[in-house]
Amino acid sequence: MLLVASFLVAFGTYFFLKPCNIAAGGISGAAIIINSIFHNIPIGMIMMGFEIFFFTLGIIVIGPVFGGKTIFCSFSISIIIWIMQNMYPNVKSFSNDTLMQLIFGILICGAGMGIVFNKNASTGGTDIIAKIINKYTKISIGKCVLIPDITVAIFATIVFGVDKGMYAILGIILNSTIIDRVIISLNTYKHVAIISSKGEEIKNYIMKELDRSATIYSAKGAYKNDENEVITTVLDRKQFLRLKEYIVKIDDKAFITVNEVNEVLGEGFSSMV
After folding, report:
1. Residues 178, 195: one domain?
2. pLDDT, position 256
3. What is the extent of the structural domain holding 132?
4. What is the spatial distance between Cα 215 and Cα 67, in angstroms, rounded to a whole number?
5. Conformation bin of residue 266: beta by default, left when phi > 0, alpha when psi is -120 to 50
6. Which topology term describes how it sits in the membrane (predicted)?
């Protein structure tokens, strides 16, 4: 997942943002600015220089696990861009519309960055600063990305002009929003409540096949005044689909309610710390 996410960030940066000189934050944006001034220095090499400094900072402040994942992602992005630059040295814009280039580039990069942050890593560079801010303030990671990236956007305005700078600021805002949306989407779970005559089989399936636990409530039906068990559990999307298929096979008259939850804390899910 981290390698796929790294490829998305590299692809969006090199093929969409770089041709239009859109420095939409991060070390990739800073590298684009420097490359536009010093054409002989490859973007990938510039990014590697930044990475060495920032990942050291990440290891010290956040920890070695985060640092190790970040090293992998940041160097993967740099190497992939370097390869792309050697294979396609004179890459041109897909569209003459700079706004379209920006939107597609940010969509691709933001999706990749959201996956990376969700795996408790970062793409390196200024994203490490964002992760550190997030650790101590609990502000959403997307909003934390805004803070260092705005600095890059200011330099982009100086180097590329007001128009490019405005595009960069728009890109940063879009990127922040997409990162948060991707993380929310990846952490969406299903809170399921089930009433069934095959309750024992369903409980065993949840625990043994899905490797999840469940909570049991006693309930009384208003229509027939009969006693029932309500089985509640929290599952990811794939687990819910498997459970639903199983329930349909053994009891197609079961009553199921499903709610989406955006965050689950505790054993088996995200840490509360």
Report:
1. no
2. 92
3. 2-186
4. 38
5. left
6. Multi-pass membrane protein
- pLDDT tens string 181-224: 888 888 888 999 999 888 899 999 999 999 898 999 988 888 77
Provide the terminal-to-terminal Cα distance of the chain, rounded to the nearest Å.
Answer: 24
Q: The tokens 């696990």 sit on which residue?
A: 65
**Cα distance between residue 9 and residue 12, in whole Å:** 5
Q: Are 153 and 172 in contact (CB under 8 A)?
A: yes
- Asked whether the CA dihedral 257, 262, 264, 270 is positive or negative, the reply is positive
Are 227 and 175 found together in one domain? no
Strand order in the sheet with 189-195: 215-220, 227-235, 189-195, 255-261
In sign, the C-alpha dihedral spanning 135, 60, 68, 155 is positive
| Domain edge (last residue) among 159, 186, 213 | 186
Asked whether residue 124 falls in the same domain as residue 251, the answer is no
Residues 136-152 have pLDDT tens digits of 887 888 888 888 778 77
Distance from C-alpha of 152 to C-alpha of 4, rounded to nearest angstrom: 26
CATH, residue 211: 3.30.70.120
Give the separation between CA 35 and CA 49, rounded to whole angstroms. Answer: 13
Tokens representing 45 are 């090499």
Cβ contact 150:25 at 8 Å: yes
Q: Which residues of 136-148 are buried (b: 16+ CB within 10 A; e: fewer)?
A: eeeebbbbbbbbb
